[in-house]
UniProtKB/TrEMBL annotation:
HAMAP family in alphabetical order: Arch_DHQ_synthase
Catalytic activity as recorded in UniProt: 2-amino-2,3,7-trideoxy-D-lyxo-hept-6-ulosonate + NAD(+) + H2O = 3-dehydroquinate + NH4(+) + NADH + H(+)
Domain 3-dehydroquinate synthase C-terminal: from-to ranges: 201-375
Function: Catalyzes the oxidative deamination and cyclization of 2-amino-3,7-dideoxy-D-threo-hept-6-ulosonic acid (ADH) to yield 3-dehydroquinate (DHQ), which is fed into the canonical shikimic pathway of aromatic amino acid biosynthesis.
A GO biological-process term: amino acid biosynthetic process
PANTHER family per record: 3-DEHYDROQUINATE SYNTHASE (PTHR33563:SF1), PTHR33563
InterPro entries assigned to the protein according to its UniProt record, in alphabetical order: DHQS, DHQS/DOIS_N, DHQS_C
EC code: 1.4.1.24
Protein name: 3-dehydroquinate synthase
Organism, as annotated: Methanothermus fervidus (strain ATCC 43054 / DSM 2088 / JCM 10308 / V24 S)
Length: 375
């Protein structure tokens, strides 16, 4: 999951407070600051403060707030004073970050070496065209540290987060205006919200199969008509199960809910991994997908598991058989080829619904190139 750290501008507390509250309201909960205001910042919410002060949540090495103090580059980077400092703080159980201004190959080497010690490496490049960010990302692949790229505008942010496909893990921003915070957040949200290719599948079987433990996912977001979650019995095929956004003569609309299926089923997650429905819990992030395949994230507020009558639904897409089970109730819907919700009580063989097909198999929720038979 991509993230943002906010470097507070200089100024009095009332000025800086506006940036902290706007950041927090936008979902940014890591603040970089070098003043004596750490305690004030933390009173505003559940916030982690990054600083070179002892009372910081994350101790920052290589920057002192005066625009200098980046990591030194000795002849042997592994023996540098900065790496020794990082090691000392790690032994004390402190979370650490290193601030590296990349202006030469030596700095790339230093970033790689200190990345073996600290939890985060903040990379600052005056010109990423001269010292390509991808070099540093490639050097640090396999190391423990998360990579944060310092960016000056949204265009740089997009490049940093998408470099070498994986991109930096996060970005460090220092906006001059409050409105810029939400602009950076939108860049991250757009990158995180991948598009999912939806295909049309033909229903080949609908059969009541008795009762089972089914899972309702209640989110902290409201969904629109056409939106739902990707769920299926097989890791290679997912049905777009519609949210309860429509009223019926029996119940009112619950646009925060997806009645997703039984406990064994897979659900597609925001990081393109899968989970079993039984694994979901309050506070998890789940993926919401609309009828055009656009994805966004939502937070799980509650998961309800209850014994309910189930329907087996099988379909065929491009010669591939997929299946899922859903509660046998009028309020449970799939999405047809026109992007409209259709109740399972009205569904019949030959109807067409939207599905997502995966080319890879799954191992512990991760896509892999492997032959797995599911039936």
């Amino acid at each position: 999951m991509k993230f943002i750290w906010l470097l507070l501008p200089k100024g009095d507390w009332e000025y800086k407070k506006k940036f902290v509250t706007t950041a927090l309201e936008s979902g940014i909960d890591h603040i970089v600051d070098f003043s004596n205001d750490i305690d004030k910042i933390k009173k505003l919410g559940n916030i982690k403060v990054i600083s070179n002060r002892e009372n910081a949540d994350i101790f920052l090495i290589g920057k002192n707030g005066e625009g200098n103090g980046t990591l030194s580059v000795p002849s042997d980077a592994k023996e540098s004073k900065d790496i020794a400092t990082a090691t000392s703080f790690k032994k004390k159980g402190k979370v650490t970050a290193a601030y590296v201004e990349v202006t030469s190959k030596k700095h790339e080497k230093l970033a790689r070496n200190i990345g073996k010690v600290v939890d985060y490496v903040i990379l600052v490049g005056k010109d990423w065209k001269v010292i390509p960010l991808e070099n540093v990302i490639a050097d640090l692949q396999g190391e423990k540290a998360k990579i944060i790229a310092a960016v000056s505008d949204v265009d740089e942010a997009k490049v940093a987060l998408e470099t070498l496909e994986h991109g930096a893990d996060g970005i460090l921003i220092q906006p001059s205006k409050l409105s810029e915070i939400k602009e950076f957040v939108k860049v991250v949200e757009d990158i995180e919200a991948k598009r999912y290719d939806l295909k049309t599948a033909k229903i080949t079987k609908i059969k009541p199969v008795g009762s089972g433990d089914r899972v309702c996912i209640d989110t902290c977001s409201l969904m629109n008509i056409g939106e739902g979650m990707l769920v299926g019995s097989y890791s290679h095929g997912f049905f777009l199960v519609h949210s309860e956004t429509l009223e019926s003569e029996y119940v009112e609309a619950r646009p925060f809910r997806v009645n997703a299926g039984p406990v064994h089923a897979y659900i597609m997650m925001p990081n393109h991994k899968t989970k079993y429905l039984s694994e979901l819990k309050s506070g998890d992030e789940v993926l919401i997908v609309d009828s055009k395949g656009n994805g966004r994230k939502a937070i799980v507020g509650r998961v309800k598991i209850e014994k309910r009558p189930l329907l087996l639904i099988e379909a065929e897409c491009e010669g591939m058989k997929i299946a899922t089970l859903l509660q046998n109730a009028e309020t449970i819907r799939l999405v047809n080829e026109k992007g409209k919700p259709v109740s399972v009580s009205e569904l019949k063989e030959g109807d067409k619904v939207l599905v997502h097909i995966e080319e890879s198999a799954r191992h512990f929720g991760m896509a892999i190139k492997e032959s797995i038979i599911e039936k």
